[in-house]
Amino acid sequence: MSNAVAQKVLADMQAASFIREMFEKGRRLKAELGEDNVCDFSLGNPNAEPPQAFFDALAAVAAERKAPLHRYMPNAGFDETRAAVARFVSREYRLAFDAASIILTSGAAGGMNVALHAICNPGDEVIALAPFFPEYRFYIEQAGGRMVLVQTDAEFQPDLAAVEAALTPRTRAMIINTPNNPTGVVYTEEKCRELAALLARHDRPERPLYLLCDDPYRRIIYGLDWCPTPVPHYPRSIVVSSYSKDVSIPGERAGYIAVPQSVPDRGLLLGALTMLNRTLGFVNAAALGQRVIARCADALCDVGFYQTNRDLLCGALCEYGYELTTPRGALYAFPRTPLADDVAFVDLLLKQRILVVPGRGFGAPGYMRIAFCVERKVIQRALPGFKAAIEAARARD
Known about the structure:
12 strands; Aspartate Aminotransferase, domain 2; three-stranded antiparallel beta sheet; globular; 13 helices; Aspartate Aminotransferase, domain 1; 42% helix; seven-stranded mixed beta sheet; alpha/beta
């Protein structure tokens, strides 16, 4: 084993192999065949057009020739941006947030790392629900914790009995992600309330139990007016989110942590989050991005673009015989693979020049993730290949 990098890092690189492997296969295939001859559904890279409000705000901010606006600011962020985000979050969660509730971060990923470092002692356990975003394990372990994976039910909703069985004296937090990556499932209002009640029964002042809501897909929903959330029902909730998906600006890394006023010892927690935003090396969310968000904190991309993609892809997959629950949110479909071995079926798709990610990379063997945040012509071009692959799988039986 090489000693060029830390052994833990080397092990993590190997554990993250599925998504990385598909990326590398896709890169090689595109180099060989040409980008237009490969249908790449492997990466969740939002591609809806950002709203005009974002471009207007960007132009206005870029025109301000004031040097102090580009200097360091308080580590929690510009006061006016925190206030604008607080107003938006208050409307979105139907709960009162003030500017002091908001820490501006380098994307939701930066926010999640800051939050986990703020609450985790060495050896603490953090529950995540499978299928799960695989980076969670790295974030948790880098904060000194240990991820405890709990399976969801047959519809990918939280299995409350399984969650309760997983709680131990070492449990420090639970991470939920709804709408979910990779399944596209939106947790029901009933499940959100029941989960909040379950956690409240186990929360103790001497053993605080946090709920971390990873919410960047929250407004990417289909056929729903509002995304249910346990945040108003569980006092020790922490929201971690960003504008990457709903404004379609993932490269700008505009994220935030929102701490409700109901959280016990809130001032101490906010102080820890602010310090860690600096000491983990993020220092601040970018000044330019903060000033843009202050002007368009409630902007939203054209979600209809994604819904049309979803309908085109999922309608065809169901017609071909794939077993699939149509996603209610996020940017992904998560059908069962026609072969029990999801990697083997993904290889069949690869022969059709289609790239998807095996479900086992998300803790759910026997499924595959298809990111439909692509140009519509990519979906149209891929449909015959999806049909040919399932027919090839049936021929093996």
